[in-house]
């Protein structure tokens, strides 16, 4: 069995991540419109019928903008904590399902485990998604590398890892001081240096792929962060999760030895695609 994953969008303008098998998939956040979500999935050859649930990390608009419309249109359960639901998207009540940190939720072929993180939201969580021994993490909007982040990062074969800002660019940029302090204050976002430190110190021997995510438009650049990580990649594929388009689809397949990861260049022949 293989696990497929892609970023439909990543950044302060909207976040949406797809992880699934050929039978079942989940979306982690829907921070772009329903129409744009559908459009990008069609462009990739992905079928909305494989999506069986949405998981909401926290209530900020760049993570929940399209949740209600998409969930209502496709009658998708939305897994969201009670605290987040009070401040988050307006949901039809019968679609909302609660989750709790460290309690795994089974969605068809997938096991989704939420965990707490440091971020300036009401009840923020990140997630790992596992199927048949393969684990993909969605670790964004993380103010600091806490013990929980380290614990779950170590389990990942592939990960969407926040690398939000270059410290010099933020310091010398045009943001007001209160916003700079919010970003770097321990409940905002990870810098390139902090993300790289996590990557170098705690990556699993099975980690095959890192999608650098939630890059700041003002205080970072894909070239800077990609170059930084590639210097220390040691064979791990490094890619950028874009803020204006989906990435290609990647897959990890179980075979003999360690799982193998590759790009799906032309996905239309696979059962999960239209």
Descriptive account of the structure:
There is one protein chain. Helices cover 26% and strands 27% of the residues. It starts with a strand and ends in a 10-residue tail after the last strand. The strands form two sheets. An eight-stranded mixed sheet has the order 6-5-4-3-2-1-14-15, with helices on one face. A seven-stranded mixed sheet has the order 7-8-9-10-11-12-13. By secondary structure, the chain is α/β, with parallel strands linked by helices. Residues 261-271 have low confidence and may be disordered. It is globular and about 45 Å long. It has helices at residues 34-44, 61-64, 67-74, 82-87, 147-153, 167-172, 177-184, 192-202, 222-230; strands at residues 2-9, 16-20, 25-28, 51-55, 78-79, 96-97, 105-107, 110-116, 125-131, 134-139, 158-162, 209-213, 237-240, 249-253, 260-264. α5 links the parallel β10 and β11. The protein has a single domain, classed as Ribonuclease Z/Hydroxyacylglutathione hydrolase-like (Metallo-beta-lactamase, Chain A, 4-Layer Sandwich).
Keywords:
about 270 residues; alpha/beta; eight-stranded mixed β-sheet; seven-stranded mixed β-sheet
């Amino acid at each position: 069995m293989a696990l497929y994953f892609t970023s439909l969008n990543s950044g302060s303008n909207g976040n949406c991540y797809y992880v699934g098998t050929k039978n079942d998939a989940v979306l982690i956040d829907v921070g772009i419109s329903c129409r744009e979500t559908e459009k990008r999935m069609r462009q990739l050859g992905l079928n909305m019928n494989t999506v069986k649930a949405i998981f909401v990390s926290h209530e900020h608009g760049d993570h929940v903008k399209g949740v209600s419309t998409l969930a209502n249109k496709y009658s998708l359960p939305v897994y969201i904590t009670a605290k987040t639901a009070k401040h988050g998207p307006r949901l039809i009540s019968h679609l909302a399902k609660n989750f709790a940190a460290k309690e795994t939720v089974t969605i068809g072929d997938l096991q989704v485990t939420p965990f707490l993180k440091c971020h300036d939201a009401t009840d923020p969580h990140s997630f790992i998604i596992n199927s048949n021994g393969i684990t993909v993490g969605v670790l964004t909007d993380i103010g600091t590398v806490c013990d929980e982040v380290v614990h779950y990062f170590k389990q990942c074969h592939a990960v969407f890892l926040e690398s939000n800002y270059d410290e010099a660019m933020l310091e010398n940029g045009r943001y007001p001081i209160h916003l700079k302090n919010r970003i770097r204050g321990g409940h905002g976002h990870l810098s390139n240096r902090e993300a790289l430190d996590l990557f170098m110190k705690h990556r699993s021997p099975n980690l095959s792929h890192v999608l650098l995510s939630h890059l700041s438009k003002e205080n970072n650049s894909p070239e800077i962060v990609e170059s930084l990580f590639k210097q220390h990649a040691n064979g791990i594929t490094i890619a950028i999760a874009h803020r204006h388009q989906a990435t290609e689809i990647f897959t990890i397949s179980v075979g003999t030895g360690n799982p193998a990861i590759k790009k799906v260049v032309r996905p239309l022949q696979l059962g999960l695609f239209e």
